[in-house]
TrEMBL record:
An example molecular function term from Gene Ontology annotations: heme binding
Chain positions recorded as heme binding sites: 451
InterPro entries (alphabetical): Cyt_P450, Cyt_P450_CS, Cyt_P450_E_grp-I, Cyt_P450_sf, Cytochrome_P450_monoxygenase
This protein's name: Putative N-alkane-inducible cytochrome P450
Domain of life assignment: Eukaryota
Amino acid sequence: MLTSSTATGTFFGITAISTLLALAILLCLKFLLPRDVLPGVLQLRGVPLLGIMPEYLSQGMPRVIESLTTVGGDGISYAKVFNVTLVSVHTPAMIKAVLAFPEENASRKGRPGSMNWSPFQTLLRLIGKSLFTYTGTEVNHQRLAYTQEFNSGKANAAAFKTIARIVTAHVDTLTNSAASTEIANFKLSTDAFALALWGEHLYGNASHHLDRQVLPVSERIVHLCGSPWPSIWYSFLALIRLVTPGKPTWDEANLRCQVGEIVDRNFKILEQHERNDPALEIKAMRRISMLSGGGRTGPFSQFAVEFAHLNVFGGHHSIGSLIVWLLIELDRHPDSLATLMTEIRDIDPTNISFLTTKTPYLDAVLNEVHRLYPTVHATVRVINRETRLATSKTPVTLKPGMLVYLSILHLHMSTDYWGADAAHFVPERFLKPEATKNPAFMPFSSGPRSCVGYKFANLAIKVYLVRLLQSCAVQVVDHGHKVKIDTLLETERPVAVRLSKACAQDCGH
Ligand code: HEM
């Protein structure tokens, strides 16, 4: 009897284990084997089971976007990174459609906790809430405050005096010391200019970056947002419950503390100014606070505090980078430089109406540089709810958890939208007014979440360029600079620049 019951037990045991194993294998196969998740859409295939994970981990998101856009297809392609689907959408119409999706269907950050590769989820943990990651009714209020402060002609006219003053001080420092100066890494210099401008404009403190704390903190945030590793590490920690989904890790909290220290210090300096001289012209940070419920004195609004955190990460990079690319392209194209000099040689860079109405060629040059070198070269949306996207052949169904990449750089470089010379610097294309309306031109994105600060940035860049080119001749020392597509678009190596005062006067520039 004993023998027979043992045999029966063993039999049931083996059957149960085999059934469980078979189920586990079936589940794994269902989970891991390549499936046609987007029927009719071309797939960039990688290695079995992992998909393009090796490429993603070794080279990061930008490389994956590049590979996905080269797959081509009907303006849409996709790849699997293990069990996550990355979709690239690359026609103007489809990009605009995705950017216009309601936020319940697609947002920048998606859900915390689950494997989520969105750089905005990392940004949220590093700097806390900002307009980038807000959804819901607050968005419209915040966008209005930003637009009033940074994208309105009136506000920028008021900011112009500060911009001109900071530009003049910066360019004078660069050019005053000797007849000719060589600067080994000009981006550091333009970053310093942009940081001084933000410091002065927001807090009345042009030297807030001089302790060398702001730039490294900001660079680290930019780097972490573009790298896949923080997301992987975070998902692992969330899985073993060492972090609460949405909350920063220990390292991230540390960096966030450093951001907080910079912000606190800036606010203290502004409050000190206000106490010392109550009649002081209201600084932009106080105005932003007043636009969002704060008083003329006393505590700053939550929105102002959030903007201050965001500004540590994003205030200077795009301004500095654009100026560097402008100098590279003008150095490569002496004819364009000569045309530009004819237009700007005698204008008064301290008079805003000259810069906003009488510089069509300068505007064309700037737009062409925005086209060839969009600092924000791509963005991302996480699908939250099943959503249909029309393609030229047949609609596709985007499923929750999919990550949709939108490559602005790809649009800007496409011969389909810009003609055979798409890869070349031809500012003249922007002399035709319809060029800025080209649906494939979106350096500041498009739709309900497009950039709310581009007019301020463009104005600062223009004042800087005019002042610099009027003061000295600029020569980019080493040629052949290439694009490096990181979190943001950068130069592959530092750009050395020679500034010569004598030449600016004698060479007829
Ligand atoms: C050359 C300079 C700039 C470039 C190329 C640029 C580019 C962009 C792009 C492409 C987006 C949309 C990203 C997306 O859809 O995910 C964006 C959004 C945004 N930008 Fe800019 N930007 C610049 C300057 C500025 C400045 C000076 C400010 C500061 C006020 C600013 C504040 C913002 C904010 C807050 C958003 C988010 C808007 C929202 O979610 O509603 N930007 N920018």
